[in-house]
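Please predict the structure of the following assembly.
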Amino acid sequence: MNLSAIIGEALRALRQNRLRTGLTMLGMIIGVAAVILMLSIGQGAQTKINQTIAEMGSNLFIVVPGATSSGGFSFGSGSIRTLTIHDAQAIAELPTISATAPVISGTAQLNYAAKNWSTLITGTTPDYFSVGNWKIESGTFFTESDLRSANRVVVLGSVTAQNLFSDEDPVGKTIRITNRPFLVVGVLMAKGQSLTGRDQDDNIFIPITTSERQVTGNQFPGSIRLMLVQCKSADEMDIAEMEITQLLLQRHRIAKGKENDFTVRNLTALADVATGAAKVMSMVLGAIASVSLLVGGIGIMNIMLVSVTERTREIGIRMAIGANQRAILTQFLLEAMMICIMGGLIGLLLGIGGAWVVSQVADMLIVITLGMIGLAFLFASAVGIFFGFYPAKKAASLKPVDALRYE
Amino acid sequence: MLPIQTNHVGHSLIRIKSLCKSYNLQDASGKTVTNQVLFNIDLIINQGEFVAIMGHSGSGKSTLMNILGCLDTPTSGSYWLSEENVATLTNDELARIRNQKIGFVFQGFNLLKRVTALDNVATPLLYAGVGRSQSRKQALELLRRTGLENFAMHQPNQLSGGQQQRVAISRALINQPPLILADEPTGNLDTQTSREIMLLFQQLNRDQGITIVLVTHEDDIAAYAKRLIRLKDGHIIYDKNNDNEAILDKLS
């Protein structure tokens, strides 16, 4: 008997028992849909984190001043201004470092025409934009000469620009920051939320010199709140961290055994932890979904065993008119596999649809890859073969005379 | 033991020598009990014969039928079917013999449920490796000859008993086997339909030279055969030509 004929026989048998076929298929449908949905949510979370990390800038350290304590009270890191712009310049000279960006910050009230908006103000150097992987939407970043001359120029985050200007083009306009006029030179492209969920687009950037002298002020001139340090390559992160620490220890004249007055944090390492967590989550979700596939598979085996018993006489007739064991085995195996493959296809569509609904309703990033679809499909076929084989084998090894006599 | 009677109609199709069949059963206490059903059967059936095997229930006629049909294997002795020693064949080769050499007709018709008459007839061809459309074409031709052309797309439960049995006979004939085994083929039919079916067998035997082995416990059905064999308690007790063969040509 050729394969197409056996497929025909198997299809006919499935059609004859539509309700049972459908119910058995349901196990497969739910299993595959769950696997697709869970994998796509996991993959989406991973992709989202990777995007955020890429937007944050690569190979980043953040250096913050150390904690200070007085009378047993710790004031937390950054509470003392031990880091200076000169520290940042010195670190930038290290061979492993490509750039540094010192930051002082505060909040300020902005005015444009009749609108006003309160936001975070960041005083920094032009390098900040390249280190932090910012892209310009319109206009330019401010320049080294703006920095040297402490010009009143400002670059707006997209949310701030939207709130002050609505549809107007902000570039070339003058806004007032704590009542001083500033020329808007550029607007940044939106980045969205940071890993910690903060909106990164509601802020403004001005030269650190301008900020120190005219806006935020500075209790200790030259001190900074933090600095971003970018390493030249990912492989040199460890060496760079050591060199930064050495240099700062030396510059701050900290004796051995004394506590450091600064902290170097590896942001990329933090990002790796987040990626790893997302990966684990994605695997756990996939594993849970696979259990439903397994349960579906057992359901198929159960139904196929019932079917073999119920159709014993049919098997006997088929054997009497010339079916060999292989033909019977193939027919029953194909029946199980067709349930799985058809269920798998429906489940696939359902899973993709479900993922779309989740992405719309929960506003989550959902990623469906070809690999995922292939995996779910392969898994479904494997379940079909694995759980279909035993009942099919049982059917094929019946003795013709016993099968025919079966009532 | 009576001497084996041969009709010399043609070459021998079936040769059975000292064939025994016994079953192992578990009795109430769990002990294995051997129950012998056939004792040293010797039998030769030539091509073109029409043989009726008779006997009461428990005589071993069904067991003999199953062995003749390669559905069951003998415990000892030899069985040659057209020069092949069936006892030595593998399961696959037995399946091929059932497909090519033997056509079965059963008391309960044994058609595939919810499968059209046409596909029921075509199925043995599918197992022989013939394509689906070619099989259907041949099946339709055969149904036309049995006058069931208009019922080709009917399922068995939409057909009368006589029609079902004629579909079953068509199915038995589709691979043009030299041997047809009919196990109580009229058991579920009324007298008139039984006569029509027996006529069909006689025609097939006479016109196409197909060897027919009929198992029955009814004497008036056995009367249509040319040779009568009677089994009792696993032995052949009677084997003679039928001198009073019922001729039903007038009905046709």
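The CA atoms of residues 316 and 401 of chain A lie 7 Å apart. The longest strand of chain A covers residues 97-112.
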